[in-house]
Structures are given as structure tokens and as C-alpha cells.
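Researcher: Good morning. I'm working through a list of sequences from a screen, and I'd like to move beyond sequence-only analysis. For each chain I'm collecting a predicted structure so we can compare shapes side by side. This is the next one on the list. No need for commentary yet; just the structure.
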Amino acid sequence: MDKKEVLFLLTEYWADWYAGHAMAQISFTGDYVTKTISIDKKSKVSVGGMRAEIDYAIEDYQNFDNLAMVVLVGGGSWRNNRYDEIADFVRKASNANIPIAAICGATVFLAKHGFLNNVKHTSNGLEFFKERLKDENAYTGWEHFIFSQAINDGGFITANETAALEFTREILLTLLEDSDDYVNVWYERHKQGSSPQTAQQK
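Model: Good morning. C-alpha cells for this chain:
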């Protein structure tokens, strides 16, 4: 049986540091296959100048039976684009009970399209959220906004711009059943460090 796929949805000027930890750890476990997907199959250049090849165009991805999660990687193009075709794809995946993860500007994208109205969620601060959504009518989930590094609720993982590690932790906890200890040890090592000096300071 083929391993299930975790799709990293990339837009132009994607933020590579949001994807790196999650891609590496998911691949390292050997339980899933990581793939890239976008609005088309043209390669996408990251904020750091990394060019990523795209495995799938969203219009060609129709079978969700082998899909484990969709990860919306934050980046510089979410603010100025509505990406209705991405919203349609996310809606199909969510309706198929596929977990959706989003960080930084991608959380605003989810809000714009009404995905966060009934789940606890976070982003880059409440004022950031208000400014980005001031002209949007589809978002009505203000009571569910929580100040947090990352939140996992109702099939949606959201994280703020400083939470690449917390974002990865929630992704791994969702994907790796019965591996909470492994995930938490990984998180603490990367968050706190593992040098003798760091250990003495804790």
C-alpha cells in the first residue's frame, strides 16, 4: 500500500523556514511522503531564494483517498491574492476530513474564506488579523481567536509568524499516532537547545 501524502501548498515567495522543519521531520519518520502542490506546476521561489519544483497542480489533484494533510505555507503573496482556486481545493480536502495546517499569512487566507469561523484559531496578533480582514465579510470567528503560538482545533492547525517549531509540533502530533513523547522531546531539544550550558541554565 502506498504511503499517504502530506501536501505542502506553495505560493510565489513562500517562506522556506515555515516548511523546513515539518518537511524534514515528516520525511524522517518514513510514515508519509511529502509532496508540493500549487495553483500550477511552475516552480516557486521562496523568500530565501530557494526554487521549489511543484509535484501537483491543484486542478489535477482529485483523489483525496491517499491524502493525510494539506499544509499552507506562509509567504509574501497571501496578502495580495484571494486564491479562490486554492480555497476550493482546501474546501474539498476539509470536507473529506483531511486536516489543514496554516501559518502566518495563510491563516488570514483561511479566515477570508470562512474556514475559521467555528474553530479556535490564531494568527500574527489580533490587530494584524483585524487589519487584514477589515474589508472581508466571510469571517465571523472573532470569538474563537486566541493569542497562542499554535492551535489545533476542529481539523485546522493555525500558527503565528514566530511559531515554526510549534507549527511543526502540532503537525507531527496530528500525523504520528502514539508518538507524543517522541514529538515533545524533538520539540524541546529544538526549542531549548541541547548544549551543556543550555542544560545548566534550565
